[in-house]
Amino acid sequence: MKTFTSLTVALLASAQAASAFQSWVGSNLYYAAGLDTDQQDTLLCALSEAGVKVLRVWLDGEEANQKGTQHVAYPSLEVDYIGDWDDTVLERYDDFMVNAKDYGIKLQISPHSWNALDAGDVYTEKFGREGFYNSSEAADMYKGRIAHVLQHVNKNTGKTWAESGDMIFGFETQNEAMNGLGADFLQQHSSWHCDIATAIKSGLPASTGEGSIPLVMTGGGCCDDTSVQDAYFDCEALDVIAIHTYGPSEFATDRLTPFVDKAIDAGKKLLFQEWGVCYFDTENNNCPEGTALSDEDRAANLTKWAGEIGEAGIPWMYWQIIPNDDPHYGYDFEIGTTENIFESFKEVALAAREYETPFDFSPWLL
Question: Which burial class, exposed, middle or buried, applies to 51 when counting CB atoms under 10 A from its CB (0-12, 13-18, 19+)?
Fold first, then answer.
């Protein structure tokens, strides 16, 4: 295995001689519920060959045929008002998670996204964007959504999702909570994550009989410093603190190692839950259009930045791998399983296992 930098080694030694474990990688696909069985197999087979252990998915509704994937549309979990349940997305993931397990991959569940709130969903209609985070009524109603998800019974196994640690890696509080409300608002309301995490934790069993109890985690922020608020490290219910960032300076090993040390001291795990390599020659975190980079340049960026994250000792999840050619529109970090660049991703993902991490995720991986 590749070892940590000298700074990280010194930090680990001072943190009660923390043990080193094998790192790992995951991926994201927000519209995964729309895939048919053949598309699932295409994606899961490719991810498995790349050594991917976890696929992060969302429970928001999506229109059909996104990112060049010819998938079906499906409704949001709550349709016309809060508590108006349509379990289509849950039932589709009932099948998906059983299939994924056969490929050695677990699902990570994001029960709600800032993207849906920002777009004006049922929670926005009732509480507004800021009100969703500073209203006790909103928190209680959102906890109802959490409970509904945890208590949903997988039609294939007869187990609730809370009991499905053999197929579910973990549950997060919300994808990129408060992302558009500014750093001050986020800091003032950072305890929101702990409140929701506590609700998730209280809905999980003491044991599952098969597999681990799913982890409880945050859903990242707009960048690394907003992803790692002090309050998160003090929250007993949070097992994992997730980092999201697309800025290359924030991939740097020496920038990330203080977060690693802080997590070790707090008894938490870190996960680089979202990052990606822009298809265009623009700034990596400003990626809507531009001149296409060559596969060689993208592969070089992929290798460099994954290596920096790996040297810091943080497992990572790529945004995002799709089961078809990437059509290259919108913010474009996608890598298609059918493209040459996927072979570069596969090499980088498999090489990630050579890095050490102080965070032991092994009980939660297949």
Answer: middle
Which residue shows structure tokens 């980092």? 243
The CATH number of residue 226's host domain is 3.20.20.80
Structure tokens at 170: 């973990």
**pLDDT digits 0-9 by tens, 56-75:** 999 999 999 999 999 999 99
pTM for the whole thing? Answer: 0.94
Segment 250-273 mean pLDDT: 98
Domain boundaries, position 106: 6-364
Asked, for residue 198, whether it belongs to a domain, the answer is yes
- Is residue 1 in some structural domain? no
Q: What is the pLDDT of residue 19?
A: 78
Residue 275, strand partner residues:
318
